[in-house]
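Give me the fold.
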Amino acid sequence: MNTRVYLPRGSKSTVGNFPCIVCCASAKDNWAWLAEALDEKPRRWFFCTDKPRGLLEKVVPSLNLATIRASWQAIQTVKQQQADLLMTGNPSMSFWCAAFAILQDVKVNHVAASFYLPQMPHGLRYVLAQWVYSTIQRFIVHSRAERQFYGEYFGIPFARFEMQHRAISVPVIDPSPALEPGNYICAISQNGQDYQTLMAAMAKLPDIPLVLVVPRGRAIAAKIPPNVRLRVGLSAAAITNILYHSQFMVLSMRQSTVPCDHTSLVTAMHLGKSFVVANLSGISDYAFHNSNAVFYKAGNPASLADAIADLWGNLIKCEVLGENGREFANAFCSPEAMHKWFEQVLVRQGL
């Protein structure tokens, strides 16, 4: 079994009555550092990740075979080690771990961290998801709006949902020169962009260049004006370079009950970048008008154009809002904040 076990510094034994925590998360999240940071108490840590193993998992990643295999492995570990706590790192792993636990009648306290669904299930998929998710004891979401929305949508008591700010490490800046020339603004969100409103707003601002970063395979059903430079399928390092060298970021989200891309917001704040964002409930725990952001009315091109022009024409305001955002991210959205939260989770579980 490809798992790693973490014990307190100096401990050489993996046996005994030490509390056991099984973590099932994406390989890119690397939760192992949390175990190392929390090793002042004797605990056994087992990590199962979705790092592709075998030809099929590497060749056909769209089937989520690595996620399913890691989830199965996690439940086998829970059963074999009689684990006290199961932590899952995304909704897909939370679903499969809970499903496998049901099928094998495995009982364990299950905390679903970073629970975020860009698209909600419907029909038979909803029935299945509602049944499986209802067996999870606690969900960690990244906004108060999600807490209410998911609770109502799946019919799960609100008390099972806990809000914790999205925490990420400060992005590493590539020392290479700016990939995009001159002064510009950027839009880099990976999901939920309202391209129609954004393109209509930029058509009203012909003298302001925008670099629009789009994931590969994403369609833009809108006319792209001449002052918009489209970049498709860039690497994470290239996206960070474009954001870092921009004047500020625009996050044009659709009016929706499903909250927005918190990762892009937190990344911008860690880099000291202000942003223009729609005034939606999902960002109310991160963005504050004229403090670290400028709001516009969702779906309104004129309102978005006014907000962009306001920030573009005031460099001092742009810098002040960016620094305020950096302070906010350092306080609430850093690895240190995640460390404190994870420690509280273990304390509440008696571990």
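The first strand starts at residue 5 and ends at 6.
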